[in-house]
Amino acid sequence: MGSYVPPGVRFVPSFLCSRPRVHEFIREMYERVLTNQQLHSALTSKSFTLPVFKEVIARWQTYMQTHNGWSTVFLENHDMARSVSRYLPLKPDSPTELEARGAKLLAMLCCTLSGTIFVYQGQEIGMSSVPTTWGIDMFRDVACLNHYKEYVSENFLIHHTFRSFLRILQKRTTTLNPHPDMSDILVDICKKSRDNARTPVQWSSEKYAGFIPTSENDIQPWIPVNPNYPTCNVEQQHNDTNSVLYFWKNLIKLRKEHETLIEDQNIEYVSEDQESEGKSGIDDTQRMADYLLSNLSLDKSESIDLRSFRIRLLPLEGRVYVSSRRMNATSRPKTTSLMAALEKLGFGPCHHMRTVVKNGDPNEPRTLQKIGQGIGSLEDIHTIFDSYGSILDYPAVCYFEELYKAYPDAKYILTTRDPAQWESSMRSTIFKAVKEYENATNRTPFFDALTDWFCTEMIGRYHRGRLYADPQGELLAHNERVKTMIPVDKLLVYQVSEGWEPLVKFLGV
């Protein structure tokens, strides 16, 4: 094969080949890497134990953490066997549901490690390696084909030890046996071949797994499709909430919601035996702890003690436990954080100034204005708020007394903030938006109504005209009015930085 040299560029081999100290570097590699090492062909399978697997993960995660690095996280690529076949003790006759459970376990492992995740095509649906029943004619990987031919060839015997020579000679004496037993070589090839990752992606249960349009009957994939495509394909898993694909989506969502789960991670194993694994991420300063528990046994359940609980895992089952303290760390002292928390706890949808703007109905601020003026009714309150599971922030806070009369059995949360921070937030959001709109030329009926509500109700009536002059004093006055009005058993005085525990306890969920 020739090489391309761009016009005007001169190739100078002396800059690249036979450089000084090359022999020194080769000698060092031989002494430090090759000497006294048992070398394996790239296509010779090598078993490993779970403690070794765990040690490798912990070593790299810890190294990156202590050296301010950021790793890549992957279990598959185009040169490797599929992870469910490579890392799980599955058998050819293992049930489909067991294979799917194992694929979810490995997904948990990936999504709870620190670093950038690379999900290889087909991994998100749990595609497996090729069947062990494949013959050599099914493979396309040149390395596999050459490996197979070399073992058949008598000339290859001279490259092996005497023990290997006897083993190979017994099976592959080509003069007497033109069709030698190659089953052990095929087993290794099925386990290690790059073709495992190169079979067509399984889109559907149609012919060729939907990889080729059915109308093009004269076209075949370059390599056979994995025969399990009727039960493992994208189309089947797309709307199945219990599928591997759906599980991956939920895990990635969890990973995004709790960034500290992956950013500050020191690994400590709570179990060192062969079949069960417990991994915790621990922050010594805040005593946060997240746990990934997994049982890599194929045929028996496993029990793991976690703090004061004893957790029993099914074969190839994994679970992720995220500490409530860890969840606190992702919160911010904003109403949007509390809004997200309430909706996550099942009190959605949440009424907020954002929903008022999103609805864009000028009648809503006008109706609220009537309520504030005393010409509205409780029925108006129910009309606006009954379709919501929770109510938060302006404009509703200006009507907490009316809300208490309309919903006497509801629970009320008074969020407290640093007054200076609250003032800064108000001036950079609501105050600024109203001023800009007052000077705008492209006015709308809705924003006219909302601006009028802001000036007459929020500024004028509820905050007595003092919000611009003394926002911090008005915040404290509002807090005292709420504490006076709402009974103690129905009120939680709460800071978002306190996290989930007091909120969950108060709401009874």
UniProtKB/TrEMBL annotation:
PANTHER family: P-LOOP CONTAINING NUCLEOSIDE TRIPHOSPHATE HYDROLASE PROTEIN, P-LOOP CONTAINING NUCLEOTIDE TRIPHOSPHATE HYDROLASE. It comes from Clathrus columnatus. GO terms for biological process: carbohydrate metabolic process. InterPro entries: GH, GH13_cat_dom, P-loop_NTPase, Sulfotransfer_4. It comes from the Eukaryota. Signal peptide: none annotated. It holds the Pfam family Alpha-amylase. Transmembrane segments: none annotated. This is Glycosyl hydrolase family 13 catalytic domain-containing protein. Residues 42-263 form the Glycosyl hydrolase family 13 catalytic domain.
